[in-house]
Amino acid sequence: MAFELPELPYDYEALQPFMSKETLEFHHDKHHKAYVDMGNKLAAEAGMGDLSVEEVVKKSFGTHQTLFNNAAQHYNHIHFWKWMKKGGGGTSLPGKLATAIDSDLGGYDKFKADLIAAGTTQFGSGWAWVSVKDGKLVISKTPNGENPLVHGAEPILGVDVWEHSYYIDYRNARPKYLEAFVDSLINWDYVLERYEAATK
């Protein structure tokens, strides 16, 4: 199953002022496209061209680093675009999610502080995550393109802390970008969809 660059689920101006048109054009059209192109080439060479992106991520982890890097970043970005929307973020969460965040993560304020802390303290490039592991929500961070799939968890929310995700708009102020992501960009409906699929 060849990797394909998905269309953005909104136009390039939709996330302004929190994420600029310029950032989305570079991030989606250049960076994500490069992961797709290189991932397809390497997956075909490794005999994994017919596998799903999730299978390639899991199979290449620890065995084929370059393929893993590209496949994992493709997987991460497929969901990253959907984890954001115009008019997103804020404290009005779907009931089921709000309940899980209260019971597993100590409530919304603690979730927000802990996710921002995970993203801020990830040294260099990487991601901060909310995942379902053993039926419960957990917050984590990973380096580079690594994601919770390879650690026995199902990611339901992720935020990209590679510099290309925020440097045009926020320069080196990563915490400010993370705050804007939580307050103004998160697509809680898609997080709920992922949560329900992970807790079936």
Automatic annotation (TrEMBL):
Repeat is among the record's keywords: no
MF (Gene Ontology): metal ion binding; superoxide dismutase activity
Manganese/iron superoxide dismutase N-terminal domain boundaries: 3-84
Presence of the UniProt keyword Metal-binding in the record: yes
SUPFAM superfamilies given in the database record: Fe,Mn superoxide dismutase (SOD), C-terminal domain, Fe,Mn superoxide dismutase (SOD), N-terminal domain
Keywords tagged on the record: Metal-binding, Oxidoreductase
InterPro entries membership: Mn/Fe_SOD, Mn/Fe_SOD_BS, Mn/Fe_SOD_C, Mn/Fe_SOD_N, Mn/Fe_SOD_N_sf, SOD_C_sf
Reactions this protein catalyses: 2 superoxide + 2 H(+) = H2O2 + O2
Pfam families assigned: Sod_Fe_C, Sod_Fe_N
UniProt enzyme class: oxidoreductase
Manganese/iron superoxide dismutase C-terminal domain location: 95-193
Positions that bind Mn(2+): H27, H77, D160, H164
EC number(s) recorded for this UniProt protein: 1.15.1.1
Family, as annotated: Belongs to the iron/manganese superoxide dismutase family.
Function: Destroys radicals which are normally produced within the cells and which are toxic to biological systems.
Matching PANTHER family: SUPEROXIDE DISMUTASE, SUPEROXIDE DISMUTASE [FE] 2, CHLOROPLASTIC
Protein name: Superoxide dismutase
Species, as recorded: Rhizobium deserti
